[in-house]
Amino acid sequence: MAAEAHTSSEYIKHHLQNLTFGQHPDGTWGIAQSAEQAREMGFWAVHLDTLGMSILLGALFLFLFRKAAAGATAGIPGGLQNFVEWVVEFVDSSVKGSFSGRNPLVAPLALTIFIWIFLLNLMDLVPIDWIPGLMAALGVPYFKLVPTTDPNATFGMAIAVFFLVLYYSIKMKGVGGFAAELSLQPFGKWGLPANLLLEGVNLIAKPISLALRLFGNLYAGEMIFILIALMFSGGAVLFLTGGILQWAWAVFHVLIITLQAFIFMTLTIVYLDMAHQEHH
């Protein structure tokens, strides 16, 4: 049992380790061959699998939507055009329902966020051992297929949204107006310290909540797939049970990955709407 637990533990750790590139303690640069080496590389290490899959899926999104736009017809549309038009109308209605200002950036940004995050999340439905097994055969020690199970990816997207919120808050209200919003609400000028504390926490909580909500849900889903995969090595009964559980969780997970993309998009729209509103 101890050996089995050790094997299971190593299996889980292997599937949760990113392909990390950075500087070794001896000054050389390269790919970490263990979790310990990855930790030693420190802050400036990069996760090649997260970056690679994010760029690849972003390029796939651009290719498919550009192809649909280039081949658009006023006659009977094809399947791809139907899908793209439905997605665009869905995102457009979400923007109209949540954004009261006028900004041509918001709708394209919302569309990009929704589709990109959905594609990143969708990788969680690929069988857990396929891509890591293929990469191991090519000599790559680790490979995490789902970028949104890496907090670096989710925080990167959330921080980008946060900077946009700060930019439009200052652009629409001015430096003085934005400072007044942080310092004079909700208790007026006599409650300035409390106002700064409450509004400051509220401001900082936006990117943190965006990032952690997406990361937490996808990381938990990935862990469940890994734990189910462990059942396939436990005999015929556990193999059959694992197959049923994997199918059931995959069906349910389709809802989760779509919902998380929608929530991230909707909160981005709401935060940008708040940045465009002036309080008097």
Notable characteristics:
280 residues; globular; 72% helix; single chain; 3-stranded antiparallel sheet
What would your notes on this structure say?
By secondary structure, the protein is mainly α. It has one domain (48-276). Helices cover 72% and strands 3% of the residues. The protein has nine helices and three strands. It has helices at residues 2-15, 35-40, 48-70, 79-98, 106-122, 130-137, 151-184, 192-230, 236-276, and strands spanning 20-23, 29-31, 46-47. The chain has a three-stranded antiparallel β-sheet with strand order 2-1-3. Helix 4 (79-98) packs across helix 5 (106-122). The protein is globular and about 65 Å long. The model is unreliable at 1-5 (pLDDT under 50).
In short, what is this structure?
72% of the residues lie in helices and 3% in strands. The chain has 280 residues and is mostly helical.
Helix segment count? 9
Tell me about the biggest sheet? 3 strands, antiparallel
With strands numbered from the N-terminus, the spatial order across the biggest sheet is: 2-1-3
Strand content: under 5%
Structural topology:
Blueprint: H1 2-15, E1 20-23, E2 29-31, H2 35-40, E3 46-47, H3 48-70, H4 79-98, H5 106-122, H6 130-137, H7 151-184, H8 192-230, H9 236-276
Antiparallel strand pairs: 1-2, 1-3
